[in-house]
Design goal:
This protein has about 425 residues and is of the alpha/beta class. The chain has 19 helices and eight strands. Helix 6 links the parallel strand 3 (about 125-130) and strand 4. It is elongated and about 95 Å long.
């Protein structure tokens, strides 16, 4: 549904390090060129160091793509291991049998393999990702691997990739010999705010998007500020914002939707919301008399509501619960699952904008209303019972007044926007 809604071939903000999505900022170009030149000239040890989420693995895959026809390569992801395990992982990645061999035999098999490749004119490159997790003994093993060399060349090259912790560890005097062997040291800088738009546009274009800009300039500015120039952060924000906009039926994403997506990504916000709604959960599974006063007391006992938006949300929750517990009986939802319906409606209400009776041009006695996006299996009957607790001629008249374009009262479509009345809490 997400891809169809935006007419995309694939997910533009995925979590896999796909090299085709790599955005070549000036820093990424410089790092890639340095590593490529270092391998081409046989420099031995190389290192790539950057913060988490900066695209180190994607850059290495891009480098590997450029070298695939000229080198024999191995990519090591498992770095929480001891020296022997690291050596076994390396041999297995190169297609060398390591079963039943001791350390001496492992080194002998690796040496034979490297000599065979050198005689055939093939270079061997080993990439070690997340190298900051290697123990000191494993790093020392990596250093000793550099001793595999012929009289005029290194038999293979090693690229260490890791977070800033790797740089701090290499400063340790105990690892001085390893640090001295690193001939090329590349890094990645955060994207400046001015490049966030190009980054987002690049990924959408690669995914097949061909239309007007999805994100408004104001929303891009907010993403740039919160994302702090880290590609992984930007990806997560954009994915959640586009998912939310898709659910709301909006193809143009403004800062309000981005802010709501940021709220969803905030652990503090999730915890606060869970604490706020926790007193309501037992009520859903009971048949006790429920009133607005009870709801108000329960909510305010857990946390003071400090914003108008949150107050409006709680008012909508109260209306929903009041409609389903009138006369001490909880009405069944169309699917027979009240809890599931409540969870669904919470997600929908998040996108609704509640208008007070003070709305310009409205009567003091007119009901409040909010915008609702029709979901699968919705009918006007269950929507009216949910929002007003009734479905009668008066309700139909209110619906027609709020929705002048609603020509067929018996027919609504998924994705359609309706103004629904809300029963007064007085």
């Amino acid at each position: 549904m997400f891809l169809d809604f935006y007419r995309l071939r694939e997910q533009p903000f995925g979590v896999s390090p796909d090299p085709k999505y790599l955005y070549f900022s000036p820093g990424h170009r410089e790092a890639l060129a340095s590593l490529f030149y270092g391998i081409e000239t046989g420099r031995g040890f190389l290192a790539l160091i950057a913060e988490p989420g900066m695209g180190k693995t994607s850059l290495l895959f891009q480098l590997l793509e450029r070298l695939k026809d000229s080198v024999r390569s191995a990519f090591l992801f498992q770095t929480q291991c001891d020296s022997r395990e690291l050596l076994c992982y390396l041999l297995e990645a190169l297609g060398i049998d390591s079963q039943g061999a001791d350390l001496v035999q492992l080194h002998a098999r690796l040496n034979d393999f490297l000599l065979t490749e050198a005689r055939a004119g093939r270079r061997v490159v080993v990439f070690v990702d997340e190298a900051q997790n290697l123990s000191d003994s494993a790093l020392e093993t990596v250093r000793l691997l550099s001793n595999f060399e012929a009289t005029n060349q290194k038999l293979f090259q090693i690229v260490l990739s890791g977070q800033p912790e790797l740089a701090r560890r290499l400063k340790n005097p105990r690892l001085a010999q390893l640090r001295q062997r690193i001939a090329v040291l590349a890094g990645l800088k955060r994207l400046p705010a001015s490049e966030t738009f190009q980054y987002i546009h690049h990924r959408l274009e690669i995914a097949g998007y061909d239309g007007p800009e999805v994100f408004t300039p104001a929303s891009v500015a907010l993403i740039a500020k919160v994302g702090q120039g880290i590609p992984r952060n930007i990806n997560n924000i954009c994915f959640n914002a586009m998912s939310l906009a898709c659910a709301m039926g909006c193809k143009r994403i403004g800062p309000e939707i981005v802010q709501e997506a940021l709220n969803d990504l905030s652990l503090d916000y999730v915890v606060e919301k869970a604490c706020l709604l926790s007193p309501l959960v037992p009520t859903l599974n009971s048949t006790k008399q429920f009133s607005w006063k009870n709801l108000r007391d329960n909510v305010f006992a857990s946390r003071t509501v400090q914003t108008a938006v949150l107050s409006a949300l709680l008012g909508s929750v109260a209306t929903y619960l009041g409609a389903h517990t009138a006369a001490g009986v909880i009405h069944s939802s169309p699917t027979g699952n009240v809890g599931a319906e409540f969870a669904t409606q919470q997600s929908q209400l998040r996108a609704a904008q509640v208008d007070g009776s003070e709305r310009s041009g409205a009567s003091m006695n007119s009901p409040r209303s909010f915008t609702y996006i029709v979901q699968p299996n919705d009918t006007l009957w269950n929507l009216c019972v949910w929002s007003l607790g009734r479905y009668d001629e008066k309700t139909i008249a209110e619906l027609r007044k709020l929705n002048p374009d609603l020509t067929d009262i018996d027919r609504i479509e998924v994705g359609q926007q309706l103004r629904l009345p809300v029963r007064s809490s007085n």
